[in-house]
Amino acid sequence: MAKIKVTLVKSTIGEVESVKATVAALGLKKIRSENTFEDSPCLQGQIKKVAHLVKVESV
Asked: Is the pTM above the cut of 0.90?
């Protein structure tokens, strides 16, 4: 499977609780924090929900 690197590029201030919880579930705490994952349908759904806050790269 492909590896995906997710980086938080915008703040979660002013976002609804479900978006903040999704960012936390991805393991992102501060701006420019990043995490690497195996690609999966569950991960794609989380990324789609917070796409306006994160940058996604293939590793």
From this structure: yes
